[in-house]
Amino acid sequence: MTRINDFRARNHPAYWAFVVHRVSGLALAAFLPVHFWAMGLAIQGEVALDGFLRFTDQALFKFGEWGLVLLLALHMMGGVRILLVEFGPWSGLRKNWIAGTLGFGIATSLAFALALIS
Known about the structure:
The chain has 118 residues and is an all-alpha fold. The chain has one domain: Fumarate reductase/succinate dehydrogenase, transmembrane subunit (3 helical TM bundles of succinate and fumarate reductases, Up-down Bundle). 80% of the residues lie in helices and 0% in strands. α3 packs antiparallel against α4. The longest helix is centred in the N-terminal third of the chain and has 32 residues.
């Protein structure tokens, strides 16, 4: 028996929590080589690192830092939610936890954005 893809499942909050968790994890993994390259500049010396830090003191990079913090917060809280569902005494997908995860990620990234602009 072949299973027909049911698109109604893609409207469920748990599906979107899965998508956000997966995409944020992939984006964070894609960021790691850039981070390792920047840390490698610190090994090369103070002049190389200072030049890189001056280059990254632009608005586009500040926006990228905000996005990185948003991804980190969403991925972390999504992982905590999964751990609570898997190992906690509760059952079900807990839509309120999904909303809490999203709220925490947005609140954390907005607090970081306020720190960036001040």
